[in-house]
Amino acid sequence: MSTAPTPTPPGGIAEPEGRECVQLEVERWRHGTLTRERDLVAQEMPIALVYHGVPHVVMLATPADLEDYAVGFTLSEGLVARPDEIRGVEVVRGDESAEVRITVAWERFSALLDRRRNLTGRSGCGLCGQETVEQAVREVKPVGPGARLSAAELHQAIAQLAGLQPINARTGSVHAAAWIAPGKGIQVVREDVGRHNALDKTIGALVRSGVDPSAGALLLTSRASFELVQKSAAVGVALFAAFSAPTAFAVRLAERAGMTLVAFAREHRHVVYAHPWRLETK
Length: 282
What we know:
With 282 residues, the chain is of the alpha/beta class. It contains 8 helices and 14 strands.
């Protein structure tokens, strides 16, 4: 995997594929007047992630950029340690669902099978499809020095992001995850009905283009929740910013991981909750 970002990874800003939206007939009421119109609604369907023929998890997601999603999820959930341990990804689409078939290095798959056998009969916690609290609330290694941004660069990206969300422009109901390269602005954006899915798709898009996610910062149009910080730290990202509030759980993980955590990142304002030194304000 490359250690430096390319100016614009192939397919960095995703264009709509035609699978992300559904057109519906609706009744719209405005100021006492009722009209019948057509409206676009974001698509959401079950996406099954299957490793070597063994089902792992089913997630509800926007059925676009699924190869990116599979690679990003596999890395951010710690199912492999390095991108080269992902050997293949195949997407099989149906009318109401999709299956993503993933192959990984055999030792990683063996460990995944052992973990599933050892967890038989335990109750589920529901965080990103994990089966136990121990799996879901896993610790991550401390991040490295990572990327630094100026406050001006961050706020330029915040202003730029709305124009790089074609699905949200049509439907108003999806999240986006953007990757910012220092000195170059937003390079990759992915959208999804789930904020964690959008993040995994962005991570996957970077890795599939040979770009190291740790060489830039992540910006999410959501709150800064624990699983987003966890996924970002798992791939070495050291500066994470979110449009909305953080949770205390997420702040504590960012502090332990050495990650710069920014929230309430909106026009002309932001709040830094952990390790502020990577965000230069002068």
